Amino acid sequence: GTYASKNNVTTYDVVLAMHGLLLHKMLQQDVITLYSADSDGYRIIPLDFSQLNNTSEMVQHVFKLRTHTKTQTNFPSLDRQHDNGVLTLFVDRQGIASEYPGFDMVFKINEKGTAERLDFDNTRLCEQKMTSLASGYINLVKAAVTEA
What we know:
Layout: H1 3-6, H2 11-27, E1 31-38, E2 41-48, H3 55-68, E3 88-91, E4 105-109, E5 115-120, H4 127-147
Helix pairs in contact: 2-3, 2-4
């Protein structure tokens, strides 16, 4: 079986966790917050890397929060300041609302765990930064899949 099935999670959970790990390494901060789209809003998934000991624990934590936390329906405010970081939303199913106001980046992930599409707000983010983030993410996922 795959890494996901061995850990009783979905490929999407592995992808979310890997993205959290990438942000943790890039930003050098212990607490990273991920956002996952839901049929009627989104779920907030905070990861505290000072409390997570290994990849498998991280993936389990993402799965638990994604499946058991309350769905948020108030989208983030667009007029917030840049220094609050880049708000990235992950979408694992087609057919969920296509508009996600307030998020800087929206990653659409397919069943294989690949990002099918990356939409971002170019008034807030420069394309060069997005391209390097996306390629870093792709390399990390490849490495994780190879390791698993």
